[in-house]
């Protein structure tokens, strides 16, 4: 199988050109290629396919083999993939996903795509549609009990469900043994422990991606993310969008202004047009290397 390794702010996937190749059992392939010791090493597998409704289609599988509907960092890399390879030689293109067709605008430098602005669509904030189980129509600062400790979170869907947790409002992070959080330092957060406790909580029927946020100023937030099916990743595009929307809803940042989201792998700029309820994400896309992988299991 020929593949391309790419990343968006460190959120890395293995990409396969399905205009030319057929991938059988993609869930199993994703588990194999994602292994960072015995495979290529990635947060999952993305298949780039022909589409009848857009310039191309992206089909996403997480590192555990589960299928995802949308990936903000992944879709920027798909745009770079199809542009740089001449599959879709457009600087304004459409990509079909399981959460709908997205439109993208590419910045080209030296004949290669370097940056992409994505229309990520609408932010869904009605709790039942995210979906999350809550006592109110909107889960904004909603209560939840984890390990007998009281937390608050804000639920947003960007085609996949997110729970956004602000560290300055959740001293229970320390009380529950998840790290000596002061609200000013995300590095002490034991995300590998709290992430699964949120992901598999019964209040989240489809599991959940969880973003832990430290607000730096009126236009900037810092984020660590636990992605369902993949664990902690260096960046999450839909998570950054959800975090920016949640920050605006909770009046943590200035309304009507772009929000810079600082992730472990780099920065994303998020804009939320509240009147149209449309979220835009701008960030880089990078090709790391290309190669071939023998998917035949060797005899032991």
UniProtKB/TrEMBL annotation:
Keywords: Amino-acid biosynthesis, Cytoplasm, Isomerase, Lysine biosynthesis. The keyword Amino-acid biosynthesis applies. GO terms for biological process: lysine biosynthetic process via diaminopimelate. The gene is dapF. Homodimer. This is Diaminopimelate epimerase. GO terms for molecular function: diaminopimelate epimerase activity. It catalyses: (2S,6S)-2,6-diaminopimelate = meso-2,6-diaminopimelate. Substrate binds at residues 11, 62, 72-73, 160, 209, 227-228, 237-238. The keyword Cell membrane does not apply. It is found in: Cytoplasm. The record marks 162, 227 as: Could be important to modulate the pK values of the two catalytic cysteine residues.
């Amino acid at each position: 199988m020929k593949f391309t390794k790419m990343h968006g702010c460190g959120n890395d996937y293995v990409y396969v050109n399905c205009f030319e190749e057929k991938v059988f059992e993609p869930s199993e392939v994703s588990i194999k290629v994602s292994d960072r010791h015995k495979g290529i090493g990635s947060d999952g597998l993305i298949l780039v396919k022909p589409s009848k409704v857009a310039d191309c289609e992206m089909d996403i599988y997480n590192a555990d083999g589960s299928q995802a509907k949308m990936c903000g960092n992944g879709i920027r890399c798909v745009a770079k993939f199809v542009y740089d390879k001449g599959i879709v030689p457009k600087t304004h293109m459409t990509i079909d996903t399981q959460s709908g067709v997205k439109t993208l605008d590419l910045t080209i430098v030296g004949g290669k795509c370097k940056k992409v602005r994505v229309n990520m669509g609408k932010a869904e904030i009605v709790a039942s549609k995210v979906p999350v189980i809550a006592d109110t129509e909107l889960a904004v600062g909603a209560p939840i009990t984890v390990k007998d400790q009281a937390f608050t979170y804000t639920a947003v869907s960007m085609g996949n469900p997110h729970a956004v947790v602000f560290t300055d409002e959740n001293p229970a992070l320390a009380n529950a043994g998840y790290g000596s959080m002061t609200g000013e330092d995300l590095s002490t957060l034991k995300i590998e422990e709290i992430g699964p406790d949120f992901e598999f909580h019964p209040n989240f029927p489809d599991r959940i991606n969880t973003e832990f946020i430290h607000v730096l100023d009126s236009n900037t937030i810092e984020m660590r993310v636990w992605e369902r099916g993949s664990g902690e990743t260096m960046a999450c595009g839909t998570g950054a969008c959800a975090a920016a929307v949640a920050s605006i809803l909770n009046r943590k940042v200035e309304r009507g202004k772009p929000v810079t989201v600082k992730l472990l792998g780099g920065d994303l700029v998020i804009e939320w047009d509240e009147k149209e309820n449309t979220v835009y994400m701008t960030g880089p896309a990078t090709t790391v290397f290309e190669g071939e992988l023998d998917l035949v299991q060797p005899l032991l």
